[in-house]
Design brief:
Largest sheet: 6 strands, antiparallel
Order of helices and strands: HEHHEEHEEEHHHEEEH
Strand order of the largest sheet: 6-5-4-9-8-7
């Protein structure tokens, strides 16, 4: 017996229509998890919804520009999502600022938040240190990930073959004589990041500067927070004190983003 299409009964919910919204957003997230392009049968299998319901929802999403139907009849995430994503990324930085301010208060060093956007790292928020000698990275700045602490923290979450593919696309130009410039050495560095639970840029982006970074667990988009400062202040002893604070703040920020 065919599965009945119950989508027309959304109004049975007290708030009316919310079920359709939940289903539509669930389908968008499933499309993103699948790499951005799927067929209706795949969505039906993964979501458990009947094909007529999915077809109706996808037709609405296509009409709104959030989904695009490809020539091969599969469906892809649409261009209107880009504007939403850009606005959400800016808000992500705004939400993070109180947590970065706590990092500055407890460590004395400049705190940053960065996202992995395609093959690049983009800084979305910063709270500067109160020291006269401090690090400054312009919000919105984009850098290649191989020479940054936040980049290492983010790439350590990816499978090695994906990291190699990214490095092949971007290249590994040296910004200092300490920059890691070969994929094998970089993958070994990522193994160390996973082992110790944090990443370090040790004079690799800029001579005289160290950066300590951790990812934000469960963030809706790949994100990391870091502190950066003069290598003379970010000593081994300081690192042992700062890393637990970084981890605690990352967990608190993750909770705020999830809520």
């Amino acid at each position: 017996m065919p599965t009945p299409d119950t989508s027309a009964t959304d109004t049975a919910r007290p708030t009316g229509g919310v079920q359709s919204l939940e289903r539509a957003f669930d389908l968008l997230e499933r499309m993103a998890d699948a790499g951005g392009e799927v067929g209706l049968s795949e969505l039906s299998t993964s979501s458990g919804l009947p094909l007529p319901t999915i077809h109706r929802l996808m037709r609405t999403l296509v009409a709104c520009g959030y989904v695009r139907q490809q020539p091969n009849r599969r469906y892809a995430l649409g261009p209107r999502l880009i504007r939403l994503g850009e606005s959400a990324s800016r808000l992500l930085g705004t939400w993070a600022r109180p947590y970065l301010a706590r990092l500055v208060a407890e460590t004395g060093e400049t705190a940053n938040m960065a996202l992995l956007d395609g093959d690049e790292v983009v800084y979305v928020a910063q709270v500067p240190s109160k020291h006269s000698m401090r690090m400054f990275t312009e919000v919105g700045r984009r850098v290649l990930p191989h020479a940054t602490g936040v980049g290492k923290a983010l790439l350590a979450q990816l499978p090695p073959d994906e990291v190699r593919a990214l490095l092949a696309r971007t290249g590994m130009p040296a910004t200092t004589d300490r920059t890691i410039t070969t994929p094998n050495a970089f993958l070994a560095a990522l193994d160390e990041v996973r082992r110790q639970g944090y990443a370090m840029d040790d004079n690799e982006q800029e001579i005289g500067v160290r950066c300590l970074a951790v990812t934000v667990p469960g963030s809706p988009t790949a994100a990391a927070i870091s502190i950066s400062g003069p290598a003379g202040r970010l000593t081994e002893g300081a690192t042992e004190e700062i890393v637990p604070v970084l981890r605690d703040v990352a967990v608190e920020l993750a909770g705020a983003l999830a809520g």
